[in-house]
Write a structure and sequence with these properties.
Helix content is 50%, strand content 11%. By secondary structure, the protein is an alpha+beta fold. It has a domain of 132 residues: 2-Layer Sandwich (Uridine Diphospho-n-acetylenolpyruvylglucosamine Reductase, domain 2). The strands form four sheets. The protein has a six-stranded mixed beta sheet with strand order 1-2-3-9-6-4. The protein has a three-stranded antiparallel beta sheet with strand order 5-13-10. Strand 2 and strand 3 form a beta hairpin. It binds protoporphyrin IX containing FE. The site of protoporphyrin IX containing FE (HEM) has 23 residues, from helix 13 and helix 18.
Length: 457
């Protein structure tokens, strides 16, 4: 038997099950999904299996929760799937950026943008990330109570704007973060709402949304405009985008630059900000892990500012394990979707073109088959190479395959640098030791602000 045949034979032959294996009707399911999407997806997967099929009117939807099937969709058979276009209202903000395009348009952009996110390119951003973090921490006062959710959001946004586009948002565009957050929150609520006023009606929400998008456009156009006259030239993502040429030697148009800037600013701050916020929540409620991390940082860095080379898993394994464990428990992108563009085989069945596929890192990351004691915060599990390499798609906070997160190296480097500096400078005690509650919006946010007393070390 060849290796390939053996691997097929050893795959669990999971039969698709339908919603009838669960105690809920379709209407129940929708109500529950609306109230508690994470709990509902988890319950459906645990009750009915790794492939669960349901029908929303004429649309066939599969919830996939087995690593093998997820690998089929994201990697092995990825050519047979497309990424759904996303809600129109999100497209209004993100235009034809990487998140919202498909096929040749996506591929052309991905090829033009990819060099800006190579590991070596990102490593050169370390001193700028450290400097921006130091600047933000200089505002912290010993003994004060801080809202770490808001702090991480402002910091991650400033780091993204500075490193990606050379913009000092604190000084030049103080409203940018507020507007971007407001625009995407509105996009989320419009997507979820079953009954909604048309987007052109001048309701207060629609007006606020349009205003936010206009302000954002103006700020981004300004960033791009200023760049042409920048002296000396910078070597950041915007510079790479402006210098990039496609296979026919054509540069990106102004509209394309704007769309990519919006997309990268949004995808590049919200995800890292929420992960860092969750990390403080987890470390704050696990003093042993907090202490162990502090000891590792003190031992390796001896008080010096960290570099990209320092935050490598070989040098700071526990720091990287804490980040991996945070992303396991609170994956910012908690659900991904694809639509079959042709008939596809999953498990023992063939599904027609048009079938929707939904995969949730939240559900899979909390499955005891792949991560023993799944709800516990145990960074040590990632120090075990056996666990790290066990089943690749049982852990996919950054997705997988050709549409793997382009910002992964940037995100991992940034989060490790920020965490290292913060823990070198401050200890913190959570203001409330209540269990963390999640709010699954576009990313998985903490429902309540994470507040902590910070004490200088
Ligand atoms: C903790 C941090 C982050 C997480 C967990 C994360 C997660 C993800 C995931 C799961 C996807 C794939 C979605 C899918 O396949 O449907 C994705 C795509 C993407 N991410 Fe990230 N991301 C993070 C940080 C970043 C950063 C820092 C940037 C930019 C600076 C970024 C930019 C993007 C873009 C542009 C895409 C679309 C890529 C494509 O389709 O070609 N992300 N991200």
């Amino acid at each position: 038997m060849s290796e390939a045949q053996a691997s097929v034979a050893s795959r669990p032959q999971v039969k698709p099950s339908s919603l009838s294996r669960t105690p809920w009707s379709l209407l129940d399911l929708y109500r529950r999904l609306d109230r508690d999407p994470l709990g509902t997806l988890t319950d459906v997967a645990r009750e009915a299996g790794d492939i669960v099929e349901f029908h929303a009117g004429p649309i066939r939807v599969l919830l996939l929760s087995g690593p093998d099937h997820i690998a089929d969709v994201l990697v092995k058979q990825q050519r047979l799937f497309v990424k759904p276009r996303g809600p129109l209202v999100a497209a209004r903000v993100l235009g034809k950026g990487l998140l919202t395009t498909e096929g040749p348009v996506w591929l052309r952009s991905r090829r033009m943008i990819q060099p800006a996110f190579h590991r070596q390119t990102v490593a050169r951003m370390d001193s700028a990330i450290v400097a921006m973090t130091e600047r933000h921490l200089a505002r912290w006062r010993d003994g004060e109570v801080r809202d770490l959710t808001e702090d991480m959001s402002a910091l991650a946004f400033a780091i993204a704007a500075d490193n990606l586009f050379g913009a000092d948002v604190d000084r030049v565009h103080p409203d940018l973060l507020k507007n971007l957050t407001r625009a995407m929150r509105h996009a989320h609520h419009r997507t979820k709402a079953i009954l909604r006023w048309p987007g052109w009606l001048p309701t207060p929400n629609n007006r606020a949304f349009l205003l936010a998008v206009r302000q954002l456009d103006a700020a981004v156009t300004d960033m791009i405009g200023q760049r042409s006259s920048k002296d000396p030239p910078r070597h950041d993502v915007l510079a790479t985008l402006m210098a990039a040429r496609d296979a026919e030697g054509k540069p990106l148009t102004t509209q394309e630059l704007r769309d990519h800037t919006h997309t990268l600013l949004l995808a590049g701050h919200e995800t890292t900000a929420t992960t860092l916020a969750w990390m403080w929540q987890l470390l704050g409620s696990h003093p042993d892990a907090h202490r162990q991390l502090e000891q590792e940082l003190d031992g390796v860095l001896a008080g010096a500012p960290p570099t990209a080379a320092d935050v490598d898993p070989q040098r700071l394994p526990y720091l990287n394990a804490v980040i991996a464990e945070t992303l396991r428990l609170y994956p910012p992108v908690w659900v991904m979707a694809r639509r079959a563009a042709a008939p596809v085989e999953l498990g023992t069945h063939t599904y027609p073109a048009g079938t929707w596929v939904v995969m949730s890192p939240w559900v899979v990351h909390r499955d005891a088959r792949f991560h023993p004691n799944p709800t516990a915060f145990q960074p040590e599990r990632w120090l075990d190479a056996g666990h790290r390499h066990a089943l690749p798609l049982s852990y996919f906070p950054f997705g997988a395959g050709p549409r793997l997160c382009i910002g992964r190296p940037f995100a991992l480097t940034e989060m490790a640098l920020v965490a290292a500096i913060l823990l070198q400078r401050f200890r913190f005690t959570l203001a409330a030791q209540r269990p963390a509650e999640v709010e699954p919006l576009i990313t998985l946010r903490p429902k309540h602000a994470i507040r902590a007393t910070v004490s200088a070390r």
